[in-house]
Amino acid sequence: MTKSIGQILKQEHFTQKDIVQLLKSSKEDEKILFTKSSEIKLKYIGKYVYFRGLIEFSNLCKKDCLYCGIRAGNQNVNRYDIANEQILKAAKFAYDNKYGSLVLQSGERSDKIFVDRISELLKEIKSLSNNELGITISLGEQSEETYQKWFDCGAHRYLLRIESSNKELYQKIHPNNKDHSFEKRMSCLKNLQKIGYQTGTGVMIGLPFQTYEDLANDLLFMKEFDIDMVGMGPFIEHSETPLYQYKDQLMNLNDRFRLTLRMIAVLRIMMKDINIASATALQAIDPLGREKALRIGANIIMPNITPTAERANYLLYQNKPCIDEGADDCTNCMEARINMADGEIGYRQWGDSLHFGKRQQK
Ligand code: 5AD
Ligand code: FES
């Protein structure tokens, strides 16, 4: 016999089957799910939304993920690498505009020049902000030693999406070679956690070959791994990538969007005190997508503060929003949007994952 949504939501823990049922909710059940997840968010997290100013400083990437628009194999990308001064200027902008933290993201590289450059940048950002800006980095798979070095230079959060916790699916969306190994991804996540980073992961939703069971397992994986932060968003096909050939097998964009909201809502109920980012990819489908995610469970937003000239070249997927807005416009528009979603911005605060704090005390 299937359970009612009310019965499932009363449980302390969800099974894979429960989660699948929640993800497949009818329109009426979805309302109940979202009401519950917003209540939990308000109770455990409150209405504060924290900014992470996002600097996508380079699209040079040595990897070839089959879904990603800036993969090494895509010859049609204008490659860029923003000079350190410009990056520091963007960091200063974030600091002056009362952002509590920033995120440095780029394509993946692990050569010594790159590793040393990041170390320097981290130290300089700390010093220009009087040690106040929190720094999240999202720079892919690196050796344990590199992760440690960057931690020692001042980064304290790391985002590394698992993309899919199902190894077979992971292998279908990545080239089959040692540079794209599921085990390596997993061991990187473990190293990050061991070093003491607030560790973030996430998945794409609506990938070709992905099932509801896979998505339920992704949420169970996050819980089991005791992750501190999550960013997950809809998969959006890019015409210059190998996965584009499966575009006719995908769920329509609107369904991918709804499913992402449901994933966020279920995760908020399962992991009450973690930080959940409202993914930019949501806004690529619905102009108010990120605000909708904030209402039902997310509490982090990442305004793009990359110098405008290069934004159009960091297209992991197509139809990416805000690529011609200056950072200033982005902040103003964000404030209005958050107020609309009944949220309040936690200016000058790090907005650390409460979950991480508790994990440290154990
Ligand atoms: N659609 C949606 N998200 C994507 N990412 C990469 N390519 C796409 C795409 N086509 C996500 C991956 C990666 C993050 C930086 O962007 O999950 O980890
Ligand atoms: Fe750059 Fe996947 S294509 S890390």
Under CATH, the topology can be stated as TIM Barrel
How many separate helices?
15
Approximate shape = globular
Name given to the CATH architecture: Alpha-Beta Barrel
Total DSSP E strands: 10
Average pLDDT metric: 92
Q: Which segments are poorly predicted (pLDDT under 50) over 5 or more consecutive residues?
A: none
Overview of this protein structure:
[4Fe-4S] cluster binds at residues 61, 65, 68. Keywords: 4Fe-4S, Iron, Iron-sulfur, Metal-binding, S-adenosyl-L-methionine. Its cofactor is [4Fe-4S] cluster. InterPro entries: Aldolase_TIM, Elp3/MiaA/NifB-like_rSAM, FeFe-hyd_HydE_rSAM, HydE/PylB-like, rSAM, rSAM_sf. By secondary structure, this protein is α/β, with parallel strands linked by helices. It has one domain: TIM Barrel (Alpha-Beta Barrel). The protein is 45% helix and 12% strand. The protein is built from 15 helices and 10 strands. The protein has helices at 5-10, 16-23, 27-44, 84-96, 112-128, 144-152, 167-172, 182-195, 212-225, 253-270, 280-285, 289-296, 308-311, 327-340, 354-361, and strands spanning 48-58, 101-106, 134-138, 157-159, 198-201, 204-205, 229-234, 275-278, 300-301, 344-345. Strands 1, 2, 3, 4, 5, 6, 7, 8, 9 and 10 form a 10-stranded parallel sheet that branches. Helix 3 (27-44) packs across helix 10 and helix 4 (84-96) packs parallel to helix 5 (112-128). 46% of the residues are buried. It binds 5'-deoxyadenosine (5AD) and FE2/S2 (inorganic) cluster (FES). The site of FE2/S2 (inorganic) cluster (FES) has 10 residues, from loops.
